[in-house]
Amino acid sequence: MAAVSMNTFILIATYALMQGLLDQAVQNATQLSTGEAQLHAPGYLEDRSIYKTLENPEAILQKLKDRSFGAVPRTYGYGLVSCRTKSAGAMFWGVDPDKERAVLRLAEHMGEGVYLSSKAHRGLVLGRKLARSLNAHVGSEIVVLVQAADGSLGNDLFTVSGILKAAGEGVDRSAAIMHIDDFRDLFVMRSGVHEIVVNTGGRVPLAALKESLIQAVPGAEVKTWRELLPTLSDMLQISDVSMSVFGAIFYLAAGLGVLNTMLMATYERIHEFGLLKALGTSPWRIVRDVTMEAWLLAFLSTVVGVVAGVAVSWVLQDVGLDTTGFAGEYTVSGIAFDPVWRASLTFRAVLEPVLVIWVVCILAALYPASISARLDPVKSLYHV
Description:
With 384 residues, this protein is an alpha+beta fold. Helix content is 54%, strand content 21%. The chain is built from 14 helices and 14 strands. The chain has helices at residues 2-34, 44-47, 57-66, 97-103, 128-134, 169-174, 180-187, 206-216, 225-228, 230-268, 270-278, 283-318, 347-373, 377-381, and strands at 37-40, 70-83, 86-95, 110-113, 123-126, 141-147, 153-164, 175-179, 195-199, 221-224, 321-322, 330-332, 335-337, 340-341. It is elongated.
């Protein structure tokens, strides 16, 4: 009974922690910068040419607004950033700070300083690794050098207004985010955007969202986050398999525990079963009684395990595990994870282990039940 209770507790707490980890990874990936889907000009993702743009972005944004989709426009360009004697390559983002705040959470994900203000002011937000390589801090002056869309060299002086927390490998290493009006001046790009990020807050399934975007903006290339972040998508699929294997080990342990218990009970009650058969009890009735005993044992054990597992999961969901001491802010395969690991307790995380353990315990009891049902009444009554 203790083994079944412990297995139930471990499985519920582990499932809740893993679900929390995966939910956090998906939220960080989709809510910070990538969104649930993106629109680009055909072929833009292959070569990232500054000339491949979505024209008339305001009309596109209005169509998405009519469908109650949150959307933000972005422009991108490449160049060099220098801070005193340090320099590095950077990917410049031109963003609308107000729309970013309304649709995504990147503006809240600041490690130092503040995000961009509503008006263009030559402010710059840097990825944390880019800032570290430049030895830049909030208030540092950054010299920017780019090749503009008209072929000229664009250069200007910006001031670092903020530095992001870990937000993914690409953002951390190269992102230099500025107001879209500053971007247009720097790159001499008067119209069009390179990307429109769409976020519904999980209200619309991905397949339906993609289909709706294709209908709303014909001619644009539509990608969901699963297509844009294949590593994360694969991680989710692998986690399902690994958790199934993990659960199978504990289910097997619970089944073996019940099998051992019921075998011992069977041999200790040979006289009882022999007497029942001598009184005319059918083998099927004995099988049913033994398996019901096993289920009752599993039921009582899982009740204890569920109470403990749900209580611990609630605490982990509220407080979380603080990994700052040994991991800090970290990314895995380019995906950012928060230093506080919180569980996510779901109905499935509780129900699935309980139901599977019940089935496994009943199946494990069939063998001792069949032994009891096949006992010879005379030999059983004289069994020593």
